[in-house]
Amino acid sequence: MNGKTVGITSQSGIVLGILNTLGRIQSAFTLKPRQLELQSPEIDIEANKANIKIENANVSGEQFAGKFEFVNVTMERFETAAQTVIQKAKNVYHTVSELSQLQTGRMRTLVKSSFHLKSKKMFLKAEEDVKVRGDKIHLG
Question: Which of 28, 31, 66, 129 would disulfide-bridge 14, Cβ 3.0–4.6 Å?
């Protein structure tokens, strides 16, 4: 049917499926009046360009991996919850126009070379001892 359109219509639904040797559906494309289902052990999607608009999305699974040249995400609020977060980068730049706050039980910063803090004003407060160690300590 080269160059022709094939139409299949139904009032309740349409199922296109691939059966295995036992007659069970291996992969299926199901159209219902207000729902589309795609079921398969593996799904491959390839395109030069894709546009996806979803009002609400939930994604779940055991593992997620992605590889991109560039990622740009814009949002009103971003929340993450994890047992452990590991970040690796060559350079990291943060720009915050108002407040940046970290609340933690303990904090450790390990720097191989120099450590530089610069601000208009600085206030350091400890409820207990403050220790400063160095070959030379310059004040003023």
Answer: 31
CA distance 17 to 107: 56
CA distances in angstroms from 112 to 88, 93, 109, 117, 136, listed in the order given: 16, 18, 10, 15, 18
Calculate mean pLDDT across residues 71-95: 96
The number of helix segments (H) and strand segments (E) in the chain equals 0, 3
Whole-model pTM: value is 0.69
- Quick check: 94 and 100 in contact, CB under 8 A? yes
Return the percentage of the chain with pLDDT > 70, whole number.
99
Closest to 25 (Cα-Cα) out of 11, 35, 40: 40
